[in-house]
Amino acid sequence: MNKVILSFDYEIYFDGKNDYQSLIDNTNNILSIAKMHRVKCVFFIDSYYLIQLQNVNLKAPYDAICKQIKQMQAEGHEVQYHFHPHWVNAVFDHDQQEWQFDKSEYSYSDLVNRYGVQKANEAFETGLKIFEQICAYKPIAFRAGGLSVQGAEQAFIDVLKQHQFKYDSSVLPQLTIKAKYLNIDHQSAPLKDQWYIQDSFLNASQHATDLIEIPLMKLNHYKGSLLVKLWTSLKYRFLKSIESKRKSKYITGKPMDLQIQSFNYPDSITFDLSRTAELIIMKRYTMLFFKQQRQLLCMIAHPKSMDQTAQIVMNRYCQWLSKKAYKVIGFTDLN
After folding, report:
1. What digits encode the pLDDT tens for the residues 196-208?
2. Taking the model in full, what pTM does it have?
3. If phi over 0 gives left and psi between -120 and 50 gives alpha, with beta otherwise, what is residue 4?
4. 60 to 56, 66, 114: CA distances (angstroms)
5. Which fold has domain 3-334?
6. Contact call for residues 44 and 83 (beta carbons, < 8 A)
7. Total Cβ atoms within 10 A of residue 304
8. What residue segments make up the domains of the chain, in order of their start?
């Protein structure tokens, strides 16, 4: 049976604004959609943010987020661990009500380069500890902040294995980003549903190991009837031309400025900032994906980037998944 993982990185925007409320509101709407269609979601919790909320005595957002995490679990959704290292030394300006980040500590490898493996692992473990305290659950799946797993790869793999993670889901095959504060090159990653990790997240081990990569959805190639392609393109362009471009109150932040110089985002699908027209592409890509002898599609999205229209797209996509008899699962269902 063809299976789909709907995964969400549960985090605020990293522009300094402490806008947790839009995260809460958008996630509530996501949970309502999931409940309507009886689908399971996987939320990768950026738990170091919660540590910092405690450190600066911001009780209201801390309590609201913890309450929502409990709601996720009570409604049958999965929570897994997400680690954004730039939270480790974040400072909150109470006068401006803003966070200040050191962008040069954006990835795990940055921490290793600056403080060494031991200190980097201590930060990783501190975030994991509060995750387990709040969720009363030991996670089995991990996602790196910014999908940044390169650099100190072996140390990263070792710490995941040490804490008995079974799955990583940080690789998007063929993704490349070159920036002042981030460099990602996933071009060498296999175009497979999953693979065993030995000495690199991007290489498939020839032997079974304790850690498995579940990559984010990447379409291998875009083949098909010329007539179907043309009809899909015409529908997409028509819907795109009539859609509203009004700014949404549901999205009030912006990404951290990492000073990106170049990037290549492969053929994939997400609910982030999606418009109704994108639903056509999402359905088309999903069908093509499974026609390419693939059986497990893992999608990434972010509640912070899902406005009202994106939520409509999610609603219709989940309805379509049910009609197509695709099974929506979590990482625990892979055991």
Report:
1. 999 999 999 999 9
2. 0.93
3. beta
4. 12, 10, 33
5. TIM Barrel (3.20.20)
6. no
7. 26
8. 3-334
